[in-house]
Amino acid sequence: MRLFLAMLSHETNTFSNVPTDRAQFEARDLRYGGEIVETYRGTGTCLGGMIGAAERLGATLVPSVAATASPAGRVTRDIYEHVKQRMLADLQAAGRLDGVLLDLHGAMVPEGLDDGEGDIIAAVRRVVGPAVPIAVTLDFHGNLGRDMIAHADLLHGYKTYPHVDMAERGVEATERLVQVIDRRIRPTAAWRKPPILPPLGNQGTARGPMRRLYDLADTMEKDPKVISVSIFAGFPYADIPDAGLGIYVVTDDDQALAERLASDLCRMAWEHRREFVHTARPVKDAVARALAAEGRPIVLADMADNTGGGAAGDGTEILRELLRMGARVTLEIGGKVDDRHGAPLRVTGTVRTLSDGRFVHRGPMMTGLPGRLGATAVLDIDDVKVILITYRWQTLDPEMIRFVGIDPLAEKILVVKSTIHYRAAFEPIAKEIIEVDAPGLSSSNLARFDFRRIRRPIFPLDPDLVYEAE
Ligand SMILES: [Zn+2]
After folding, report:
1. Which residue among 10, 19, 265, 287 has the highest number of C-beta atoms inside a 10 angstrom radius?
2. pLDDT at 327 over 50
3. Which pairs count as long-range contacts for 176-182, CB under 8 Å and 24+ apart, including other chains?
4. Residue 470 — pLDDT band, cuts 50, 70, 90?
5. What is the 24 CA–ligand 1 centroid distance (Å)?
6. Beta strand pairing status for 99-104 and 2-9?
7. Whole-number mean pLDDT of the chain?
8. 16, 3, 150, 134: which is closest to 63 by C-alpha?
9. Which CA distances in Å does 196 have to 54, 78, 223, 269, 465?
């Protein structure tokens, strides 16, 4: 059995003015052919899961391209076309294929296109024809669209935020794909897009509305007729018509069942829509509370400056307040990516360490995968240690603090630039977590964004919207 394997993953924040170009992909990952298998085998990623499952099932992988970049503005046309054309050329050159495995995101917005993944899957379908099944893994933040559903046989969305089930979804997509190839199942899908645009702040799956929805989905999946249920919280910082919550239910040849379950989930999502609205603590308040708190470490979550959501990652408002509360100032850091995350800060400090920024993920997300932050310096500014990195990367792993010689457990306060992902690794070690409302492109206060193209009305931008969920 021969399975084609490719990855193209990007979460596009259309409010960001930082274009995601080839250099951004090269900084994170852009590789071809057999090297993909060597790099991702055994890692806590979709590709890691796909590779492990394929090898266990005795399938031969035909690896093509793996491309990913840190979330930022629209993906430039040239790198998008490069990766797409490479994928299509490899498909054409692959000879006989039994199935296609794609690791995509679902919220990629290339220049001049609203739905990157729909375009990719449709193009792959045109090459392989109707008989070769296509299974796709998608991020929990995917903005589900018609073309993705129409041209793929199976979509498998992550079921967790923090995303700790990526490898599991890769395994599932591969096993299900093989069952389709062997004609043991016949995927039949139903989907819903209720008018809800959940901000990131209450999208976490440990508690709240997404937990509620996934508890119901988990029950539904116990039925052997149900192949899988994916509830996409969606990515609200993409100003495209399809942004927002998406529900996708796939059954084994039972359209009526798929429709009924999708409706049940849609109704529940709408009934509990107000639980998605999220408010964080103002900066001054949050810093004062952290300084006064007992025990350590206290995590200050800079939720709106999450590079994983396309924010700059060099926002200065919390640091400004920490320094104001007891420090002096003289060199210029932060606030350089754009003007939406606070102004650059003049500070005086001493350089504690310099490094090449290479570390290995040790937390529950992307476990074992090497990370690259580029040239990295730690600056001591009185009692505040600032880790300055070159490539934007979300603080989702305490290893990103530890590898520069700082023990996160020994610090009074840890400021993490992350909305939810940090919770998987920091919740177990934090004495307290304070969610902070600093400015930024991943803020859960959607009223701050100048939406122009999203379908309206949509909750919570139109808080009094009346909608019959069906
Ligand atoms: Zn995500």
Report:
1. 10
2. yes
3. 176/135, 176/227, 176/228, 177/3, 177/99, 177/101, 177/133, 177/135, 177/153, 178/1, 178/57, 178/59, 178/99, 180/99, 180/133, 180/135, 180/153, 180/154, 181/1, 181/98, 181/99, 181/133
4. confident
5. 18
6. parallel
7. 95
8. 3
9. 37, 33, 28, 8, 10
d(CA 417, CA 308): 9
Task: Give the angle subtended at the CA of 10 by the CAs of 177 and 459, to the nearest 5°.
Answer: 95
Q: How many residues does the chain have?
A: 470
* CA 396 to ligand 1 centroid distance, Å: 12
Phi, psi of 124 (to 5 degrees): -65, -40
Q: What's the per-residue H, E or C state across 445-468?
A: CHHHCCCCCCCCCCECCCCCCCCC
CB neighbours of 324 closer than 8 A, spacing ≥ 6?
Answer: none
Q: Residue 244: left (phi > 0), alpha (psi -120 to 50), or beta? A: left
- Smallest CA-to-CA distance from 173 within 145, 192, 152, 144 is with 152
- pLDDT band at residue 294 using 50, 70 and 90 as cut-offs: confident
138, 157 contact by CB (below 8 A): yes
Distance 157 CA to ligand 1 centre (A): 10
Q: What's the whole-model pTM score?
A: 0.85
Q: Sheet containing 413-416: give its strands across.
A: 281-282, 432-437, 298-302, 413-416
Give phi and psi for 289, each to the nearest 5.
Answer: -65, -40
What are the structure tokens assigned to 301, written together? 């979550």
* Centroid of ligand 1 to alpha carbon of 227 (angstroms): 22
